[in-house]
């Protein structure tokens, strides 16, 4: 047994004792991650949290089998070796990153974890000569391969049709409130509120570069303002609208994009070419907003058209008239 491990070992260099020790630490980490997922989901998705609790118990059972095997073969002192000590070994996302993952992404990450563990146990079994060790590692490979089917069994136990529909509805609502709604508000503000200053500057000066600078300043300034306003207006704890940082980023970025869309054409030096393209971009932006409202926010198409396209056209006309006056 190595008393001191080099900074990184190749998997092919590991002894059988080190392979078992690595498997023990992997099972400990995976159980901890599943419990972290369960805690992350418990408030909004209690049934899915119960599934991850059950999967963590499964990993605890695997860890116990491996520890018993190690004690029989090598004694009670288990070498400290973890996946980060092995070159090219699969990684695990820290549990705190689950705060940035939705329900479907967490489920996908759990599936990836089981697939990684399955491949590890297959490779580990091929490196062992002891019959009991080879059998246990093979059984664990089969168990990891069957975890997806077992997860389906857990879902059937904990997630009936109504519970799944309820959790899917909560997940959709969280996505809409955290990302779509702030982003849509930002896109509308950036696309519409910058129309008047950009086109007023264009027709007042006839200078495409100066118009672009006005558009750039208006877009970036509006993005910063909208982002901070959204983040500061609601911490999301009572309203359930999610992280204020995420909402602020969504709103700020989409506001800037909405303004830059019709400012960038003024990088073209010919005034009428730039203006024609900018007007076309404006109408694409406005119709995109109508589609998003209708698709995600379930706003009736006719009402969304009146609110956005006609309103935006009026603001565009006002900017042109003011600039030409």
Folded structure, characterized:
- This protein has 325 residues and is mainly α.
- The protein has 2 domains: 11-159, Ferritin, CATH 1.20.1260; 167-324, no CATH class.
- The protein is 75% helix and 0% strand.
- It has 10 helices and no strands.
- α1 (16-41) runs antiparallel to α3 and α9 runs antiparallel to α10.
- It is elongated, with a radius of gyration of 28 Å.
- The termini are far apart.
- The model has no long low-confidence stretch (mean pLDDT 83).
Please outline the major beta sheet.
none
What's the mean pLDDT score? 83
Quote the distance from N terminus to C terminus: 87 Å
Question: Count of DSSP E strands?
Answer: 0
Individual helix count: 10
Shape: elongated
Q: How many discrete structural domains? A: 2
Query: What is the N-to-C succession of helices and strands?
Result: HHHHHHHHHH
- Give start-end ranges of low-pLDDT stretches: none
Question: β content, as a range?
Answer: under 5%
Q: What radius of gyration results from the CA coordinates?
A: 28 Å
Classify the helix fraction into a percent range.
over 70%
């Amino acid at each position: 047994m190595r008393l001191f491990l080099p900074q990184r070992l190749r998997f092919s260099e590991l002894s059988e004792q080190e392979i078992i020790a690595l498997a023990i630490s992997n099972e400990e980490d995976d159980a901890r991650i599943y419990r972290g997922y369960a805690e992350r989901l418990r408030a909004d998705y209690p049934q899915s949290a119960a599934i991850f609790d059950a999967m963590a118990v499964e990993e605890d059972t695997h860890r116990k089998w491996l520890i018993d095997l190690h004690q029989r073969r090598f004694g009670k002192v288990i070498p400290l070796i973890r996946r980060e000590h092995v070159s090219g070994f699969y990684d695990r996302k820290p549990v705190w990153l689950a705060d940035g993952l939705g329900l479907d992404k967490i489920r996908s990450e759990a599936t990836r974890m089981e697939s990684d563990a399955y491949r590890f146990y297959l490779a580990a079994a091929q490196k062992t000569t002891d019959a009991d060790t080879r059998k246990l590692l093979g059984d664990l490979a089969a168990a990891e391969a069957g975890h997806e089917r077992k997860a389906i069994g857990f879902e059937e136990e904990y997630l009936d049709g109504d519970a799944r529909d309820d959790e899917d509805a909560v997940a959709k609502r969280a996505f809409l409130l955290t990302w779509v709604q702030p982003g849509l508000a930002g896109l509308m503000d950036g696309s519409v509120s910058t129309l008047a200053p950009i086109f007023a500057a264009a027709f007042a000066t006839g200078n495409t570069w100066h118009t672009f600078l006005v558009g750039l300043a208006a877009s970036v300034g509006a993005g910063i303002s909208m982002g901070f306003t959204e983040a500061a207006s609601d911490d999301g704890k009572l309203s359930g609208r999610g992280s204020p940082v995420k909402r602020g980023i969504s709103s700020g970025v989409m506001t800037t994009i909405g303004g830059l869309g019709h400012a960038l054409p003024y990088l073209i030096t010919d005034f009428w070419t730039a203006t024609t393209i900018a007007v076309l971009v404006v109408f694409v932006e406005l119709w995109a907003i109508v589609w998003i409202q209708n698709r995600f926010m379930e706003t009736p198409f006719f009402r969304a058209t009146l609110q956005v396209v006609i309103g935006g056209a009026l603001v565009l006309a006002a900017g042109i008239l003011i600039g030409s006056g």
